[in-house]
Structures are given as C-alpha cells and as structure tokens.
User: Fold this.
Amino acid sequence: MSPVEFLRNRFGLPEEWLQGLETITEQATVFIGTPEVIRFNAVKPLRRGLRLCRIFPHSIKPTTFAMQLLGREATANQIEVDEQQAKQLINGGTVEIAADVENGFVLISWRSFIIGVGIYKRPVLKSCIPRFRPVD
Assistant:
C-alpha cells in the first residue's frame, strides 16, 4: 500500500483526495505538488512541493502543514478538542482525552478546523504540531 493510500484509508479521505496533484518520494519523505512543480528540473530544488508525510519502518507520519491544507474532508481518526486543550497541544503538550479512534497518528481539530497532527495512545494525546509557530 502506498503512503497516499495509507493516509487516505487512515483518515477516511475521499478517493479523489489528491486529484490533480502528484507525489514524489525522496529519502523517506513524500512530497506533493502540481505536475509542473514535481517535474521542475531547471535547477536542483531543496524540495519539490509540500511535505505530505515521513515514512518510518513501522508507521507513516503525516505532516501538520499538509493535513491542515488537505485534511478537511477527513472522516476517521480525528479528535475534536476544546480551546484549553488546543492551546496545550499547539504549545507541544499532551492531554488526556477519551476518544473513539485508533491508537496511532490522528488529526487534531478545534471547531472543526484541523490544527495539526498528534499521536494517540489511549487515553493520552501527544502533540506533533511544530513548536516554532507562535501562539497568542
């Protein structure tokens, strides 16, 4: 199963989820972009497109940035948090929460907006949201 198929199945995303976009894998990282970006060869780019996920030996970790942009149609393995929990998670913390999702990587949402990716091991939700983004 490809990383894209895995993510689509894990998060209940529609079949046409990445319609019109292409992927390229470089050093265990999957990037996504328009066909023009993926095929651009005029100079050697640092990266081609948006980092979609990282491939590890036993898991595939989606990136927060990609899921914020592309995950709004997710129907599975998503945990809705309240404002206090959202602040804790955005700042790199963990929260205890009872959720009807599979253990592993999950999408974290607040007011139906995906704020990032976390890892859930019942009942602890740990943030995987990059910590270099300031929060007011």
